[in-house]
Amino acid sequence: MNATRERPDIRFLISGDVTAHERGAAERAVGEALAEAHGVVTSVQVTLSVVADPALPRPALARAVIELDGRIVRAQAAAPRLDEAIALLRSRLAVRMTTLRVG
């Protein structure tokens, strides 16, 4: 396979008040991380969750579970807002992809 190989569709689990824009941002963030992946990605699941509780300091959660060459790669981030959690998720996925290449 070459660099233009197809990736599996991202399966989303959504909980709480998540907009289509936020879902699209998560899809782009995970897609960018997968572009750095070396190997065959067989499944991708992303969870976006917002808890409607103003007492929580970080009610927004973004999580990704990726199967890459038979290995499970996980990353998650919690933040006050979902867009922040998605940005943190993107950074954490990038670190994990780099670690897999080096290790």
Summarize the structure.
By secondary structure, the chain is of the alpha+beta class. Helices cover 36% and strands 33% of the residues.
Structure description:
This is Sigma 54 modulation/S30EA-like ribosomal protein. InterPro entries: RHF-like (IPR036567). With 103 residues, the chain is of the alpha+beta class. Helix content is 36%, strand content 33%. It has helices spanning 20-35, 82-102; strands at residues 10-15, 41-50, 60-68, 71-79. Helix 1 packs parallel to helix 2 (82-102). The model has no long low-confidence stretch (mean pLDDT 91).
- The CATH architecture designation is 2-Layer Sandwich
CATH class: Alpha Beta
Major beta sheet, strand line-up: 1-2-3-4
How many strand units? 4
Beta-strand content bin: 25-35%
End-to-end Cα distance? 22 Å
Q: What value does the Rg take, in angstroms?
A: 14 Å
How many individual helices?
2
The sequence of SSEs as H and E is EHEEEH
Structural class: alpha+beta
Number of domains: 1
CATH superfamily: Ribosome hibernation promotion factor-like
Mean pLDDT across all amino acids = 91
CATH fold title: Double Stranded RNA Binding Domain
Shape: elongated
Report the helical percentage: 25-40%
Task: Summarize the main sheet.
Answer: 4 strands, mixed
Q: Return residue spans where pLDDT drops below 50 for at least 5 consecutive residues.
A: none
